[in-house]
Design goal:
This protein is α/β, with parallel strands linked by helices. The protein is built from 13 helices and 8 strands. The protein has an 8-stranded parallel β-barrel with strand order 1-2-3-4-5-6-7-8, surrounded by 9 helices. Helix 10 links the parallel strand 7 and strand 8.
Length: about 290
């Protein structure tokens, strides 16, 4: 009932904060901190599993395979990216059913045309409003009796302007979306205007390095935001630490750099080695 839990947490009035998870180790780490949701990003999934940019190269199987594994081990409901649905409306139907079966709490679908690309890379092409409305309707029907939430995202802010983006989100709400996602607003005023204009919970992408100002969760809450995701902070931090180590190693220096390296014993514990050791002690090592 992860979707129902997300509904309850948003209905409480407190902002729902969802840090990004880009692999299983990041998931195990974020499990420690008691967030109300975790966010599985398409950008960072393509980067971590394929080593490719967010331009529609990754397909449905590239998403569902790691996301389903994450759902098994996550301590909180997962909000998962599904790009444009990976093809036709039949592909979208298949995708939604797969995400629901995997236990995903909320699925995010956007109104970009194919091939899509990162919404913070600049203006992108979006489909006509009616085409996205059809996507929302198909997704709502495909989930059936599952409690998974449908999040409708618009990428029209940078290409069509804020007014057009908000009109799109209103149309997607009428089509059956549960939450609305305004991608790439460029100021706090724009975020507040969206939150006060729309009648459904608003989700904002606080992507470090992107177009939207990075604020504290409490500041987004003051602006009227219901859900905020921070997809890039974890992987960018991990990449910076790893890059520093590789750079030192290339210069014949394998030493640990203070607090930049995670404790190996704690990582082993996070992976569940104590449980396995206890199991082997009770039943043998076979």
């Amino acid at each position: 009932m992860s979707g129902a839990l997300l509904r309850k947490r948003v209905a409480s009035g407190d902002i729902l904060v969802a840090p990004g998870i880009h692999d299983m180790m990041s998931l195990l780490l974020v499990n420690k901190y008691g967030f109300g949701a975790h966010y599985a990003s398409g950008y960072w999934n393509a980067a971590s599993t394929l080593g490719e940019p967010d331009v529609g190269i990754a397909g449905y199987r590239d998403f569902i395979t790691p996301f389903a594994r994450m759902a098994e081990k996550s301590s909180a409901p997962i909000i998962a990216d599904a790009d444009t649905g990976f093809g036709s409306l039949a592909n979208l139907d298949h995708c939604v059913r797969g995400y629901a079966h995997a236990g995903i709490g909320a699925i995010q679908i956007e109104d970009q045309s194919f091939p899509k690309r990162c919404g913070h890379s600049g203006p992108v092409d979006v489909v006509p409003i009616d085409e996205m409305r059809q996507r929302v309707k198909v997704a709502s029907e495909a989930r059936g009796d599952d409690d998974m939430l449908i999040i409708a995202r618009t990428d029209a802010r940078l290409s069509e302007g804020l007014d057009a983006a908000l009109n799109r989100l209103k149309a997607y709400a009428e089509a059956g979306a549960d939450w609305l996602f305004l991608e790439a607003p460029i100021s706090a005023d724009e975020i507040n205007r969206a939150a006060t204009t729309l009648n459904l919970p608003l989700m904002i992408n606080a992507a470090h390095g992107g177009k939207t100002p990075i604020l504290q969760p409490s500041q987004y809450e003051e602006l009227g935001v219901s859900i905020v995701i921070y997809p890039a902070g974890g992987p960018l931090s991990a990449a910076a630490a790893a890059d520093k180590f590789f750079a030192r190693l290339s210069g014949d220096n394998a030493s640990q750099d203070g607090d930049a390296m995670f404790d190996f014993a704690e990582m082993t514990q996070l992976l569940g080695m104590e449980r396995i050791a206890a199991l082997q002690k009770r039943f043998g090592k076979a």
